[in-house]
Specification:
Length: about 140
């Protein structure tokens, strides 16, 4: 068992990405009560959850600003055509951190994925390019 799995909590950490960029689709943002870093009381923090993933990303100011710049105006209403995102690691003053960016054309995954997928009436047919890109989101990243 990997050491990162032994210390894994409810929220994503940079170690869990193992240096990989991971495509994600924003599903919702919840506000959750967390212990304050200094251990003095609790605070409400926004947590982003992604389609097909179990762990959430605690959103810091940088990631909140990035989501706003991408067009997210209200955490209670994720637009149906919100762009696909890439989750990646960065080195910060406090250590490794996680960031979000929009998947850009030419990156191999420029498709917009809706947050409310519709069941395929013919699941045995061959997949098109857009569907194969969406299927690529089904990866082995353990979150």
């Amino acid at each position: 068992m990997k050491m990162s799995e032994l210390t894994s909590g409810n929220y994503l950490s940079a170690a869990e990405l193992e240096g990989r960029d991971v495509p994600v689709q924003l599903e919702r943002i919840d506000f959750e009560t967390m212990q304050h870093r200094e251990g003095q009381g609790t605070e409400q923090k926004p947590v982003a959850y992604f389609l097909g993933k179990t762990k959430g990303l605690v959103l810091n100011k940088t990631n909140l600003r990035a989501l706003e710049e991408m067009g997210l105006e209200d955490t209670d209403q994720i637009p149906a055509k919100f762009p696909q995102l890439m989750l990646y690691t960065v080195e910060t003053q406090k250590g490794p951190g996680l960031r979000l960016r929009v998947v850009t054309p030419g990156s191999g995954m420029s498709q917009v994925v809706t947050t409310h997928p519709v069941a395929d009436p013919n699941p045995n047919r061959p997949m098109g390019i857009e569907e194969s890109r969406a299927a690529a989101m089904e990866d082995d990243v353990p979150f």
